[in-house]
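CO-FOLDING WORKSHEET

Operator: S.A.
Ligand of interest: S-adenosylmethionine
Run index: 201
Mode: holo prediction, single chain
Checklist:
[x] sequence pasted
[x] SMILES validated
[ ] output reviewed
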Amino acid sequence: MRERKSGRYYFEKEYAENKGTYWNFKPSDRLIYFEKLLKRKSKVLDLGCGTGRVALYLAKKGHEVTAMDISETAISRLDEYAKKEKLKIKTFVEDMEDYKIKENYDAIAALFSLHFLPKNKVYKLVKNMKDKTKKGGYNFVGVFRKSKGNRNKYPFDNGELSKMYSDWKIVSYKEFSKEEKHGEKGKPHTHDIANLISQKK
Ligand SMILES: C[S@@+](CC[C@H](N)C(=O)[O-])C[C@H]1O[C@@H](n2cnc3c(N)ncnc32)[C@H](O)[C@@H]1O
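OUTPUT RECEIVED:
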């Protein structure tokens, strides 16, 4: 495995330095809104799931969740939380960069993980996500946009994420800025975000 600033080693360090969830477990309004769109017992894939902010919430709501991340620490923490809460979540450690989605899903989520891939891999994976979503199913995607100080591998242009889904129904698309602080030692900083929920026609 090559060393990448934003890949396995970067996140392993972040997770090791911050016990617990790293990201807040409180479901965002958009996550609550997204879940309400899903039919009962939807089959959902969460790409770059971290410690399970999205996967755990969806599993609690009765959906059949599969979650993957490049970080072994994140996945083992997610497994522990799921066990404690008696939730069944299929998990695995994998690099999204060359990952091919094998099954078809009612919904696929990729929250704040795509911008860690290079541009060609982002486009390839989004195509794969769209192909592997069942007709009438949903994609829920959050990314960081280009802004001063953003050092992610592929910060998105304004409007770019919604353009990638121009052949789907855009249920909700929002661009906004958010002040955040990650983990116990994190410094407050601002992210320019694009957030999309779309439905396959
Ligand atoms: C900002 S966190 C978001 C976690 C979770 N999706 C959420 O919204 O709370 C980004 C996650 O993407 C994962 N990640 C980064 N590069 C990845 C890659 N190439 N393959 C799989 N996961 C990756 C990191 O390990 C990290 O857990």
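REVIEW:
Residues 6-7, 11, 23, 48-50, 53-54, 69-71, 74, 95-97, 111-113, 116-117 surround S-adenosylmethionine (CB under 6 Å).
Confidence is low (pLDDT under 50) at residues 1-6.
[x] output reviewed
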